[in-house]
Queue: 4 jobs
Job 1
Amino acid sequence: MLTLKTFLKPFTVPPDAPEMHVAQIHALAKQAPLFYGVLWINVAILVYDHLDHCPPWLTYLPLLLFTIGCTTRGLHYHRLSRCALTGEVAYRQLQTLNRAVFAMFMAMTGWSIVLTHYGNAGTQMHVMFFMTFTMLASIFGLMHVRSAALCCATAIPVWGLYFLSIGNTTQQLIAGSFLVFSSAATYLIYVYHEVFFSLVKQHAELHRLGSENLRLANSDLLTNLPNRRSFFTHLDSALAESEGRALHVALIDLDGFKPVNDTYGHPAGDAVLCEIGRRLGSLAGPHCLVSRLGGDEFGIVLTGLDAEDGVAEFGRAVCAAVARPIVLAHGVVQVGCCVGLAGLGESGRNWARLIEHADYALYHAKAQFRGSAVVFSRELERRRDWRDRVQQALHQADFEREMRVVLQPLVDAEAGRIVGFEALARWTSPSLGGVGPGDFIPVAEGIGIVCRMTEILLVKALAAAAHWPPGIGLSFNLSSQDIAHPQIAARIAVLIRASGVSPARITFEVTETSLIQDFVKAKQTLDALKALGCTIALDDFGTGFSSLSYVHRLPIDRLKIDRSFISEVTENDTCRDVVRTVINLCRTLKLGCVVEGVETAEQVSVLTNLGCEMMQGFYFHPPMEAEAVDALLARTDRIDALLAAPARAA
């Protein structure tokens, strides 16, 4: 039984080669119409030669059957040539082909043998040559399908042995030659099958590698999300197909991701990115494309959200999904994000403009507060235009001439005296007029000129402080780019020595946001400033990520409670409790505590009862010009004189 199976195996179609099956059907379908056409012509000529020698049932009936068979099979394969076949369909087609070929050539052999009993020696030679050339042509025509070619070849021994047994010498010699040539053709069937199978395997492998390369070129290797290239390709296609449909783009930037990398290592950061990608994918749905654009940035192409409220709600849902705690192997972490969204309504059908609008909305969201989502609007477009004008003016600005510092008092409410001043930047542009620090400082950071601006402002602030009594301090703000600059501490040391102001009188204020950008470099800078003898204050305390971690890992001497907690401290119990907690924390850690944004006497009273001593705000005095500070300190350092002074904001 095993021997019989081995013998019959070449006559069957192997079920485990779907790529081979599809390739065989496609190759066969291309030449099937020609094959069946030539076969029908040869049959018709043979029938015509036997019309005068055979009864009609041996001529017209076979011709009719061949006509039906060749026409239906030829049309069938013509249709297959235009279809996308699966491996399963191709497998069934090949099995049908084997059965059809075997039945057709056995029937043709029997019909030809019967025809040899009619006619004369010439018609017998015609029959002999008909079978010889038809079988050989069929074998080579079916060469792509070994099993079908071998099924065709099964008729060769029957036909050859028949003429060897009954034919004359010439016919026997022709039959012998036919058998020898057929044997060689059968061998070639095996050789060609191996070659064709190898080519199909190579083509399938090349197709697989091409598909894999295409996937790699368009996928993010870490998250398996589409990458930046795929995002823009999809956006371009979506814009082309978006006639009459809503289309929006969301750009997402993570907050607090770098500390995860710094604290837990890059594997933990990779796990966070994968989890964020999974959450965004489940949130966006099947009709939206979520991509990782690079680093901790993601992008989403949104379809189907028509109303602006729905787009804003989606942005808030993204922020909420990202903000959920993430469980890692070494602990639980939490990051946030800001989202900028823009739609076709404001951007037209230009994808570059759409991305530009979404990017500006993201920039605006990050400037507001963490965890916010902003949809680009006409109002934002006006702000962007203003920002562009500010940027152009900054490029052309003479900082020495146009920049100045104003000084806001820092008071000890319990002692009733002024203890220092915070230097605040002011810029008067020849083309724009007075520009607020909230407008020009973020732009200066964006175009990389804030460090140069910082040095000029610090020189001016130190020059002002040089005229003050020794007990009056100076607070000065450093940006994220300042504290990340490798040479900033050395430059500041040179400027302080040149000014003659004692480093002990100088406090440098940094925000939690600035520390997040590059914690290692920030720590190096702050350590160097601390070594000079300067004081370090953490500004806007309580509004950033992992606030307490900075307190114990950095050389912090003072905390400044953000004004957002002070505005409602007289009415809101929660705000009052937060302030009390921070004040107690400072006492425990032996840190100074400053409350900024004090605007009313009621706030002063509540803060004093909570134990706060150092305060700053418009209640005591708005920022003052340097000359006004000199005049004030020349008379007294008491708060009473400060409160009695004209409250003109500078």
Note: The radius of gyration is 44 Å.
Job 2
Amino acid sequence: MFLYNKDKKGHLKQVKQVPFKLEKNVQEIFENNLNEIMGLQFVDTEYAVKDKRFDTVAFDEQNKSFVIIEYKRDKSTSVVDQGMTYLYLMLQNKSQFVLDYNNKFGKQLTVNSVDWTQSRIVFVASSFNDFQQTSSLFDNLAIELWEAKQFEDGHLLIGPLPKKDTISMPIPKTSNTKSASVFAAVSSVVKPVTEDDLLQVASEPIKELYTNYKRSILALDDSLEIKPNKLYIVFKQQGKNKVDIEIHKNYLLLYINAKHGQLDDSKSLFENCSNIGHWGNGDYRIKLTDDKYLQYILSVIKQVLK
């Protein structure tokens, strides 16, 4: 895919990608815009833990978990080994993370109130090699890959590397005894949630219904991505929740993240759940047992997309 500028006559001129001069340049962009880019709360930079320094530490307020972000220029290094080592260090120093978070934000977070099972590490680079990309496909590894590209006209292209097909299998084995113990320690605590985990409760017709809605929603915009959590499946755009789907045995609950009255729901199919206890984000909720109104629902969802 190429980026072009179009002049008034309709002529195209390709916008060339230019490399970041320093790894620090990418780091500063992310840290100064972390909520906008990833929907995360920035905690600290160059965070010292034992003999290591984490480039960026962030907090996921929705999942109540810490996120480590590393910026890479070397395509030859293993994201799995570094990722698991850093997650291990975080899990061995939980109190330090919580204390520093509380000191910065004046909060009363406790070690037990953090969901360490949802800890994760994000690697950011202009591109990744095939081995690195394959490593991120293991759905039981809490590793994400994000690409950040800079162009000569000042534009930036930033986003997660799509996980086309995740791999459900044991964490890759290593002959290194120390690495093996680190992998085992991390995998015993960190348990990334998958779509399959949430779909286990659903009947076969509801699984098919979810798949239909999922494909249709993702087709609305290339920037949408799926992020399951323990309660529902989130459709995110630029780090912000746009649509949530709760999975039940015989139905789905779909939420659109907007305040009541902000969207045009001409058929009045959506329930105002602003005063009702619920898990999903937003005041618009609809119970789904079929795809009769799929196209209409998509038209309402479009209203919250950028």
Note: The first strand starts at residue 4 and ends at 6.
Job 3
Amino acid sequence: AIDDAMQFAFFHWGVHAWAVYGIVALVFAYFSFHRGYAGLVSATLVPLLGEKRMNGPLGGTIDVLAIIATVTGVAATLGFGALQINEGLNYLFKVPSNFGMQVIIVIIATFLFTWSAWSGIDKGIKTLSNINMILAFIVLIVLFAVGPTLFTLNNFTNSLGNYIYNFFGMSLR
């Protein structure tokens, strides 16, 4: 069961997901850098609907809908993440698990995200990325030092092998 679970984790968070993200990024990059349009969803629809329509109310409506969809997706993820962080803090440090604590976690996360975006790639996003990488390596080292190292490595290689072996079958389901 563990191998199957990890195989599907690779499937959902691996090549398939990043291929979709990459296609979207290529579309935005093409229209932004090659065609000189703004980095808006409506700009990617100019060849289909025309520049006049995309610079008018229809383009604005498409951009507003894209913003609403993005905010809704981020809000749901942030809410579920706050619940998980709160339960983890409760388990490790006996921090109360309640709505007030979850609101505090959401406020802290929102502040960090806002600061990161506001301060730009060179400062905010780079700083958070570096902190994230350092913490990830610390967790990796601790897990290998005190965890079931052979089990983890065996499980990883078996699951990755199963994912590669079943790549096309899983892709076409």
Note: The mean pLDDT is 95.
Job 4
Amino acid sequence: MIDTVVDANVCWLTITRPRAANALDAGTHQALVAGLGCASGDENIRAVVLRASGERAFCAGADLKEFAELPSGVAALKRRELLLATLLALLEFPKPLLAAVQAPAIGAGAMLALACDEVIMADTAWLSFPEITLGLPTPMSAALISPRTQWRTLHRLVQLGERMNAPDALASGMVDRVAPLAALAPDCAARAAEHALRSGHAYASNKRWMNRDVRRNLAQAAALATESSRHAFTAGQAPTYRADQR
């Protein structure tokens, strides 16, 4: 589910569920957190690039087929707990961490990218947070988007569920670089190598300070989303989750 390759002090972590549009199930969450842990403890690794296999999607979000046998509210809580643990692992990773987004990044998949230090996107890719169109609250998305862009872009993405293409994402600050698809991997490799030249201790200290508010806000947003879901469930207003909705 996560393939690991180390090349010239750069670790490439690849989500390998192309038939499922690289949707996040429990195994993928756990493997990604474990991969980050190994990379953090390996002194020979100076930077990490998170990428995904296939052309269909960088990541289509949560795997809604998982936990399908559970009540929708319970399943949503489990997915949210897994996602929060993964996002915090990304935000707390002490070394340079880049996202190579080769295809659409949707919902939780877009959150993975935004939790990295830099996002490099293919010029044909796009991102979206469609939860609002499914009747789902997504304050966790808002917590990750807000440090990167202005309020009106946050509103369009979270409250309207609008899709954002790569040029617009670059112009709004949602991503850091845009490259032709064929140049995405070389561009990420060069950028990671540049990051790898920086002092590891200084980088980690800066990152811990820079991400302090995001970590706190993300945890609070997860708690808010859980409370909102519980309220809707007890009020008989819980949304219906379908395996084909992403």
Note: The beta strands are 2-7, 10-15, 47-52, 97-101, 105-106, 118-122, 126-128, 164-165, 177-179.
